[in-house]
Amino acid sequence: MDAAKFHRKIIHIDMDAFYASVEQRDFPDYKGKPLVVGGLPEGRGGVVATASYEARKFGIRSAMPSKTAQRLCPQAIFVFPRFDAYKAVSSHIREIFHRYTDIIEPLSLDEAYLDVTSDKQNIGSALDIAKLIKQAIKSELELTASAGISINKFVAKIASDMNKPDGLTFIGPSRVEQFMEGLAVEKFYGVGKVTATRMKAMGLHTGADLKKLSETEMIQYFGKPGKFYYQIVRGIDNREVQPQRETKSVSVEDTYQEDLTTRETMAPELSILTERLAKRLQRSGLKGKTVTVKFKFHDFTLITRSLSANSFINETEDIQQAVITILNNAPIEGKRIRLLGVGLSNFEKNKGSEDEIQLKLF
Question: Which residue spans within 30-154 are E strands per DSSP?
Fold first, then answer.
């Protein structure tokens, strides 16, 4: 890699066990104990949103069924998420980021990319900026974050995960290619279990192994992602930090302790979801045209059905009109429903006219 080449300065900040850490901060009795934030194990369909590091020692992980988590650690404390509290903390963290740069790409409440190639305070060193951000988060919020610093998003994200919790990992331009060569294939973005198993069966265990393949071979073996693997193993990732990530859809859903078996029992649940969705949309100032309802069956298969309006909507009544039409036409007769979801998409870019709502099933 040419040392004289221009390089971005990218930081990836990832809060440590975010939801659980906020709970342990706000409720000292939870400190030092295995804590699971998510659905309760006695409820059906509960899953782990996040787990404290004390709970992770027992093998508890995000997206794991809560009942499984309880079996792994019977003494674990289970609490429901408090999203309002997490959003408030996230806003404070974002304010800290903005002290140094406005080029921020949030990935979720607890992680973001920052481009500090040119920082507001003319500090110049991305490593120093990452240290200052971590210190501010610790002193102002009593929480810890891990930071990865490098020349591109891919390497910075991997680096932030290397020394958790409270980690700080810098991978400079001269080290990027060597770092990528030593990286296990399952750590590459987009390489899931199936692809990783396939790669290993081909004798491809590390980035160095992948580097032996030509770009044509990469695409031949792995399709479109092959081109990305070919570039990233050479330290090439030209994706920019995107400060304005366009919202494609907003949705809410709920899993039920007992299966819903009739449209009459689903209607009030959908009304509750619709009201929640409308409030979220109105807080965000979003209006859209396409209403979607998701039905997940007892066997975990799912279907979605959508309606399109000829004007932009975000009021409960308008969304509800579409939801009821979808419910009445959905092929769910005789089905046992364990989850319902309602979403809105196809958002307006400019203010449109307030035309009469007309719905078209598709």
Answer: 35-38, 48-51, 77-79, 104-108, 111-115, 145-150
